[in-house]
Design brief:
about 250 residues; alpha/beta; Rossmann fold; 7-stranded mixed beta sheet; 7 strands; binds S-adenosylmethionine
Length: about 250
């Protein structure tokens, strides 16, 4: 630990350095370890954001840009899609991909911190975050920032690993994530423990009900949570209440 660092600062630095170090193999490992499923889930998340044609969308913890590119298909060339990530190597790869992607006219990638987003209040029609929130050092702070930059009535979509429901799937999934994933991850990325961190961080991540409470605490109104592959991943959709719409006067359970 660097002298004087708090545990939150330590996590922030650890995560940034780790993703920087594995960025060159990140896409390959995602394809192999999820058997391509991650792209299907990201496509669903982009659609669930309901970013309108010509609208503005932000993808936080953008990595190499998959979700931002899917958002761009909805926003169209007249829209604006911004991908933000704090790992410089992830952003370099995302920009390189954008330079070869014919649908990426609307997409920009910025190096920045999810906990201090460099945008004005209410700038975006939709905000997404794919497999990123679990890695953020101060989750509340990042959710509050996403709330701030979203316009009233705009949607937040959080895609994150979760906890499979059926016991047999849970058992097999844990076996896979604590044995094969670290082994393949280390072999292909060359990083000693990045793919050991992955299952450990998933295991300590809150279940969908607890995460919904966190969203509510940060001001969002959860709309729905869709479990993907029996709960291996979960997609939360929430809205920033619009005080000028009558529905926002009533609680969802009321
Ligand atoms: C598992 S990757 C997900 C990347 C991409 N969204 C995807 O689904 O492929 C997590 C990303 O979150 C980024 N990250 C973690 N904490 C961050 C923060 N505080 N600010 C910005 N990016 C952050 C990491 O650099 C990394 O690229």
């Amino acid at each position: 630990m660097t002298f004087g660092e708090t545990p939150v600062e330590k996590k922030r630095r650890y995560v940034r350095e780790m993703f920087d170090a594995i960025a060159h193999r990140y896409d390959l490992l995602n394809h192999i370890l999820s058997a391509g499923l991650h792209l299907r889930w990201k496509r669903l998340a982009a659609a669930a954001s309901q970013v309108p044609r010509g609208g503005r969308a932000l993808d936080v913890c953008a990595g190499t840009g998959d979700l931002a590119f899917f958002l761009a298909l909805h926003a169209g060339p007249e829209g604006i899609v911004v991908g933000v990530d704090f790992a410089p190597e992830m952003i370099r790869i995302a920009r390189e991909r954008a330079s070869h992607d014919p649908h990426s006219e609307a997409v920009r990638f910025l190096q920045g911190d999810a906990e201090r987003l460099p945008f004005l209040d209410g700038s975006f029609d939709a905000v997404t975050i794919g497999f990123g929130i679990r890695n953020v050092a101060n989750v509340d702070q990042a959710l509050q920032e996403m709330y701030r930059v979203l316009r009233p009535g705009g949607r937040l979509v959080v895609l994150e690993f979760s906890h499979p429901k059926p016991r047999l799937v849970r058992f097999l999934y844990h076996l896979y994530s604590f044995t094969l994933i670290p082994w393949i991850g280390r072999l292909l990325s060359g990083h000693p423990d990045a793919y050991r961190y992955l299952p450990t961080s998933i295991r300590s991540w809150p279940n969908p009900a607890a995460f919904n409470r966190l969203l509510e605490r940060c001001g969002f109104q959860p709309l729905n949570c869709r479990l993907l592959c029996t709960g291996i991943a979960a997609m939360h959709v929430a809205v920033k209440p619009d005080p000028f719409r009558v529905e926002s006067l009533f609680s969802p359970s009321g």
